[in-house]
Specification:
43% of the residues lie in helices and 16% in strands. It is α/β, with parallel strands linked by helices. It has a seven-stranded mixed β-sheet, sandwiched between helices. Helix 9 links the parallel strand 6 and strand 7. The longest helix has 15 residues. The radius of gyration is 17 Å and the shape is globular. The two termini are 31 Å apart.
């Protein structure tokens, strides 16, 4: 029960259905899935949680050394799955959670039987022929700005990340989510996120995998989606008619349709 409190775990939906674990991205919390949950609860057991340092997780559980690598977050995912005794769950991870899910599936293959990677990026920094979307200088500048003025960075970056200038309320929501996160913990998660390189981990995926990308996304451009599909054997890539890095908020109907179609095929 301590683990469930630590990560503010919420379980809803059909208790007899296959478990679907929804994992939020950097600066967010489980509320970001509120438009997806209704599409899943009739048939699936839906598990929501907050990473330590986010949402209503237990801040006393924060350990900078643990959460300075994606592996620390993946350990939390596995511990949540163990606490709920999940079997063959589908892990739906947004943004950095996509790679956390890849690591968790390798750590506990009996717990996670399929992956849905929403706007994934295994590496944000350009490297030779690999196009991650950012230069080293870009990431250094991003992190320096975040660390020197987190609230200002949040207000400036959230609308860019959301990518929906015609719907400013979504950018405002993401800004508020960023600003609700403890700045010290957010700085650690940001460094862990934007300096991570999980490209080699993609080859370890052995479960059915769906990759969802937006048609336009400044954080995870389409070259990244193509890279992930090529690296994950047998994976399926769906390009949604959406803009921005949060298609589950900006285009929930298309996102939900792609996820539910994938779930049906897993039966």
């Amino acid at each position: 029960m301590d683990i469930l409190r630590r990560n503010n775990v919420v379980v809803t939906g059909n208790p007899e259905g296959r478990a679907v674990v929804l994992a939020h991205g950097f600066g967010c919390d489980q509320n970001m899935w509120r438009l997806t949950v209704p599409a899943l609860v009739p048939e699936y057991r839906v598990v929501l949680f907050d990473y330590v340092g986010s949402g209503r997780s237990d801040p006393s559980a924060f350990d900078e050394s643990r959460y300075s690598s994606l592996g620390g977050y993946a350990d939390d995912v596995v511990e949540v799955c163990d606490a709920l005794d999940l079997d063959d769950a589908v892990f739906v991870g947004h943004s950095v959670s996509a790679m956390i899910g890849v690591l968790a599936a390798r750590k506990a293959p009996e717990r996670i039987g399929a992956l849905v990677l929403v706007a994934p990026s295994p590496c944000y920094i350009d490297d030779g022929a690999y196009h991650g979307g950012f230069s080293v200088d870009d990431i250094d500048e991003l992190l320096s700005s975040l660390e020197s003025n987190y609230l200002g960075w949040s207000a400036a970056m959230a609308p860019v990340i959301m990518g929906t200038p015609d719907r400013p309320e979504l950018g405002e929501e993401l800004t508020n989510s960023f600003c609700a996160t403890d700045p010290a913990m957010a700085r650690v998660f940001a460094r862990t996120t934007f300096l991570s390189d999980s490209r080699a981990d993609l080859a370890t995926v052995r479960v059915p995998t769906l990759i969802l990308e937006s048609a336009e996304d400044v954080i995870a451009p389409r070259q990244v989606g193509a890279y992930v599909q090529a690296a994950v054997d047998g994976s399926t890539l769906v390009t949604l008619d959406s803009t921005g890095h949060c298609p589950h908020l900006s285009a929930p109907e298309a996102t939900n349709e792609a996820i539910t179609e994938f779930l049906v095929k897993l039966r």
